[in-house]
Amino acid sequence: MPESRPLRPGDPPRLGDYVLRGRLGEGGQGVVYLGESGDGERAAVKLLHVRFTGEAHARSRFARELAAARRVAAFCTARVLAADLDGETPYIASELIDGPSLRQVVESEGPLAGEALERLAIGTATALTAIHHAGIAHRDFKPDNVLLAEDGPRVVDFGIAKIIDESGTITTRAVGTPAYMAPEQIADERVGLPADVFAWGSTVVFTATGRAPFGGDTIVATLNRVINHEPDLGALPDGLREIVARCLNKDQRLRPTADEVLRHLLGHPEDEAEASEEVLAEGAQAATADLTRPWEPLRARRRRILVGGFAALGVAAATFLAVQAGFPSGGGAAAASPSPTASPSAGSASPSASSALLDRIRARDVIRVGYRGGLPGVALYDPPRGFEIDVARYVARRLGVPEGGVRFVPLRYDEREEAVERDRADIVIANFSIENSDRERVAFAGPYYVAHRDVLVRAGAGISKLGHLRGRTVCVTPGLATAAMIRDRGVDFVPLEAEDPAVCARKVADGTADALPGDDLLIAGFGARLRGAELRVAGLRLTSERYGVMIRRGDPVACRAINEAIRSMYADGTVKGLLKNYFGRAGIRPDPALPSLETCR
Predict the structure, then answer these.
(1) Pair 594, 568: CB distance under 8 Å
(2) Which of 237, 393, 454, 479 has its CA 20 to 30 A from that of 61?
(3) What angle do CA 20, 156, 136 make, to 5 degrees?
């Protein structure tokens, strides 16, 4: 447990549900307190120095960043427990990690070497890849923001520097720590994800040497070295030296992506598609010190992990800003996939099992399914047809609903939690990621599909990597977050505005535009609908979006039954067949593996 110091006069006694027991640290972004909830759960509660003025621009930007950060899979990052971004005292409570920072360890015990250094490099690269998959730039990656927990390194504070910088509340300083800033941050050029890769390389050099590669006696000297000097990488082993040198290239266009760094470290080809959840899981496992097999070499352990699979790892839910101001946070709420025998369907559930949902189904022979209509291939027409409609019917059958007993209830995005809470719908399936929902109000089973932010392009257009969009015409619709993610990754394009995705799809088909960004299922549905046009999803996979089945809180029996239905749907090939049927013309490539399912409790 990190050591806390007494509260000072003027410190708040509590923030939200957390009574503040002491101070853990303070930095340029805020004060971190040791908080304790009413049920005894401890957390690192960060009170941000930033005071929002109530301007709609600042608040909406913060809300967008929060929504994006909730999509980060907690591979070597941390879990957010609570947040209040609208009040006079904005704070974020994150999981409390028992471990020192990387800087503290290196300064007190000396540099890392051998397998310890390799695990550190892989773990931090895994975290950075997961952060980037959510379209978030860390902007302050450094040894202080890496915690060394018992089960491996954790990266924290991702996204906060960017939020503060872009909110307009702090504009008098460059965001970042000078010794780990990239040249473009100093030169006032566009700053995006490549700057994080540069900082990762600098952090690895510090880990291996005890010195920042561009450190100087003064800030001016440090900044001069970042721009004009080449680092000394002689202390790095051969396996790390080459990739770190590429990360520290002064030209951000020549640096590898975080995905490429991770795949290099794991021995995968760098030119493959975006690192999958399995690759992230492999990285997280390889970064974990296996105390039960201390004699086993890391590469042999990695092979054993690959052979054994990833069932014990799972996908984490909802991580945000793991904010411990130099006290990096720990692993998220890992949603480990239940064992194959853990959860029967409603038809085979024990009669004594307590489940409000399954009891209603038995009593009525009906299930009401909330869905979002108007999406070709996903849910369209009246009565609705599409991928999600068929998924809902399959789940309903597994829950014991008789033929003809499914009632579909059309919903808007902003109605979905309320529909479950107020008994308008028994479950909701609405192409909405689990992480973007209010987990204080509802619960989830699944996911039934892991979607990705991507782009729809013409077949043969030569767009298969993110960089291929540079200078191209991209059709954008109001409120489209994917276009902003592309720009955040340093890729400039020519925007072409349209009122809705259907218009954009037609513009891509006739050559007026080169690409339509969005969730892969949604854009694939519009693309597959245009007969005679050869449109396909490019396969960029900018993020991972876990589409789940929303249910009421406090019904773990129903959650497990739905998870069992989803498990069966993948095992018998139903998901693959549905995706091919509805989206095959648009080139959707389904992952054959069952997604890591939510833990039901």
Answers:
(1) no
(2) 454
(3) 125
According to the model, what pLDDT value does residue 305 have?
35
Q: Which amino acid is at 129?
A: T
Cβ atoms of 455 and 463 closer than 8 Å: yes
Q: Is the CATH number of domain 346-452+544-586 3.40.190.10?
A: yes
Q: What pLDDT shows up at residue 349?
A: 43
pLDDT digits (tens, 9 = 90+) for 63-98: 555 555 555 555 566 666 777 766 667 777 777 777
At residue 60, the pLDDT reads 53
Cα separation, 136 vs 376, in Å, equals 30
Q: Please report, for the chain, the start and end positions of each structural domain, with discontinuous segments joined by +.
A: 49-78+95-335, 346-452+544-586, 453-537
Token match 């390194």: residue? 153
Q: Closest by alpha carbon to 29, among 332, 319, 331, 321? A: 321
**Which residues are known to be catalytic?**
140
Query: How confident is the model at residue 276, as a pLDDT?
Result: 66
For residue 550, what is the enclosing H or E element?
strand 545-552
Token pair belonging to 525? 């549905």
Bridge-based pairing of strands 406-410 and 367-371 is parallel
> Residue 353's pLDDT is what?
56
pLDDT of 540 strictly over 70: yes
Confidence of residue 153 (pLDDT cuts 50, 70, 90): confident
* Residue 270's pLDDT band (cuts 50, 70, 90): low
Residue 408 has pLDDT above 90, yes or no: yes
| pLDDT above 60 (res 314) | no
Residue 344: cis peptide before it, omega within 30 degrees of 0: no
Number of residues written out for the chain: 601
Distance separating alpha carbons of residues 117 and 146, to the nearest angstrom: 13
Confidence of residue 325 (pLDDT cuts 50, 70, 90): very low
Asked whether residue 161 carries a pLDDT value surpassing 50, the answer given is no
d(CA 306, CA 72): 23
Flag whether pLDDT at 437 surpasses 80.
Answer: no
Please answer whether residues 387 and 430 qualify as being in contact, where contact means their C-beta atoms are separated by less than 8 angstroms: no
Structure token pair of residue 89: 């005292």
- Token readout for 86 is 């609208």
The pLDDT of residue 504: 93
Token pair listed for 51: 């005071």
Output phi, psi for 582, to 5 deg: -90, -30
Assign domain 49-78+95-335 to a CATH class. mainly alpha
The two three-digit tokens of residue 357, written as one number: 């949902």
Rg (CA), the chain: 24
Q: Are 65 and 131 in contact (CB under 8 A)?
A: no
Residue 177 to residues 3, 55, 100, 154, Cα–Cα distance (Å)? 24, 28, 19, 19
Name the phi and psi angles at 529, rounded to 5. Answer: -75, -25
For 255, the token pair is 């640096």
pLDDT at 85: 66
Q: What does 362-408 look like in DSSP terms, one character per residue?
A: HHHS-EEEEE--SBTTTBBTTTTBSHHHHHHHHHHHHTTPPTT-EEE
Strands 333-335, 367-371: pairing is: unpaired
How far the first Cα of the chain sits from its last, in Å, is 26
- Which tokens hold the place of 332? 């998220």
**453-537 shares the fold of 346-452+544-586:** yes
Quick check: 210 and 111 in contact, CB under 8 A?
Answer: yes
Alpha-carbon distance of 5 to 553, in angstroms, equals 37
